[in-house]
Amino acid sequence: MPHQKLCLGTNSQFHADIIDQIPMIREAGFHEIFFDWKKDAPVDLWCKKARDCGLPIQSIHGPFGGCRALWEDDEAAANAALTDLVCCLHLCADQQIPIMISHVFIGFDIPPISKEKGLNRYGKLIREAQKCGVTIAFENTEGEEYLDAVLQTFGNEKHVGFCWDSGHEMCYNRSEDLLARYGQFLAATHINDNLGIKDINGRITWHDDLHLLPFDGIADWDYNAKRLVNTGFSGTLTFELNTISKPDRHENDLYDAMPLDAYLAEAYKRACKVENLVFKRLNFSHGYDKM
């Protein structure tokens, strides 16, 4: 039996309507669920279905396609991106969902632009989150200098946190130990695996962000468990997983060929394995285990 709650996100790649995925995720064994916010998607109906199935909603993943605009000069694009994020915050508040996940940058051509406008806009978003009583957990992606700017500026404010994506750390952040840097802000996790950076010259692309099941990539899960324990985080362990391979890649093909119930059962087994490593590391840190 897991000692921490385990959460899985629904996914349009799962070849089933989101509403039908919800009871399947519960039946697989997961304790909580999260959804992606999309404009005009019936997220309120998904939330009701989840609660009817006994699944609390751990978080809503906010929109991220426009997050780069928040740092740039186009005021109309920036306002549109900010409006969508505020709509997602309000949905979280209305549905009593405690966390909204937010990216802070998108893209791999990272210009040396001024961060002043972006920080002003994120400041507005954070003030709205404080009014709503919703924590924004900012996630590590490409452009980690923008994440750093947000967390160094606002990290100690109420309703601001960090979402650690274990796979993004490996392929977008070159395996830098972001839990050591931002662990004091840790509010949520996105746990997944990959093969690191494939390009021999170290060029980073989104094709490396595979979102494999844990233990199907090259992640050192004992190391990850140790780092999680060192942060003091005891919240839900959330898994964000894909079943469809990236273009010209085939690592996820086996998942896509599996019946969804079998895949979800395997995902729960891997989640339990990760959680067990965290629990063992916690006992070790308390001197209960002489590993």
CATH first level: Alpha Beta
Report the C-alpha radius of gyration, rounded: 18 Å
CATH topology: TIM Barrel
Q: How far is the N terminus from the C terminus?
A: 21 Å
Helix content: 40-55%
* Strands ordered across the widest β-sheet: 7-6-5-4-3-2-1-8
**Content of β-strand:** 5-15%
How many strands appear in the DSSP assignment?
8
CATH architecture: Alpha-Beta Barrel
The average pLDDT score comes to 94
- The total tally of domains equals 1
Q: State the fourth-level CATH superfamily.
A: Divalent-metal-dependent TIM barrel enzymes
Question: What would you call the shape?
Answer: globular
Unreliable sequence segments: none
Annotation field: number of helices: 10
Structural class: alpha/beta
The largest pleated sheet is described as: 8 strands, parallel
Query: How do the helices and strands follow one another from N- to C-terminus?
Result: EHEHEHEHEHEHHEHEHH
